[in-house]
From TrEMBL:
It comes from Umbra pygmaea (Eastern mudminnow). InterPro entries: Beta-lactam/transpept-like, Beta-lactamase-like_AB/R. This is Beta-lactamase-related domain-containing protein. The lineage of its organism: Eukaryota, Metazoa, Chordata, Craniata, Vertebrata. SUPFAM superfamilies: beta-lactamase/transpeptidase-like.
């Protein structure tokens, strides 16, 4: 229910967000890094782990969640809690890598748009970053980034991504291959992780039946506009 997997809604989304958001940073002497409502919050293997422990009359219990993975673990123990090890953390040390491996190995099924024509063409963001959108063999839209700035920062094998159709001119960015979370070039850095999974919201079609551009709110990128042809660049 807390992870949104229950068959009907019991709590409002805003209520769930409040419940799963850390509120206070704790002193280093406390056993959790942060606390929330009503959780203790720590980080394990790069994920935020929220949990609540309880002990009473020889019985112990831990209720825990890893929201980003939609993963929950409840441990109920008859007897005192082991003092020399954290059973929950130990369990997650096995479960999280196994789940990550399953996600990596799972075949991605991408959905093509009902009609790709409105989205095909060239686009630019402030005449700095340029995009070409075409149709792949499976009908799914393929986006390639190009331009002098992009070519200086991002290796060619990481400049191509796919757009998974969701609904009503909304697509989700998908990288089909593993990538470095942060690319470092000289003194600059580029986060590919920030791009993966972002939503692209294309504008309402014009009289020619084409989308004149799109926004990527999660990347703070707005007014990416269509251009007539592929530009040429000079030094």
């Amino acid at each position: 229910m807390l992870l949104g997997a229950y068959h009907r809604k019991l709590l409002e989304p805003d209520t769930l967000k409040i419940m799963l958001t850390p509120l206070f940073r704790c002193d280093k002497d406390y056993f959790a890094n942060r606390t929330g409502t009503p959780w203790e919050v720590n980080e394990q293997l790069g994920y935020e782990l929220v949990r609540k422990d309880g002990d009473l009359d020889g019985y112990s219990a831990t209720f825990s969640l890893v929201p980003r993975l939609k993963l929950g673990l409840v441990v109920l123990m008859a007897g005192s809690r082991p003092q020399n090890q954290d059973v929950v953390a130990k369990a997650y040390s096995h479960i999280i890598p196994a789940l990550e491996r399953a996600f990596r190995e799972a075949k991605k099924i991408l959905i093509p748009p009902p009609n790709p024509e409105p989205y095909i063409g060239f686009f630019t963001y402030g005449n700095i970053t340029f995009y070409e959108i075409s149709v792949g063999e499976d009908g799914v839209l393929v986006m390639q980034q190009f331009g002098p700035q992009i070519e200086d920062l991002i290796p060619e094998r990481y400049r191509t991504m796919k757009l998974n159709y969701l609904l009503d001119r909304v697509f989700r960015v998908v990288f089909e291959k593993q990538y470095p979370c942060v690319l470092r070039v000289s003194t600059a850095s580029v986060s590919l992780e920030a791009q993966d999974g972002q939503l692209f919201n294309f504008y309402v079609f014009d009289k020619q039946g084409l989308s004149p551009g799109f926004d990527a709110p999660g990347l703070n990128t707005y007014n990416v506009v269509r251009i007539d042809h592929r530009p040429t660049f000079t030094n």
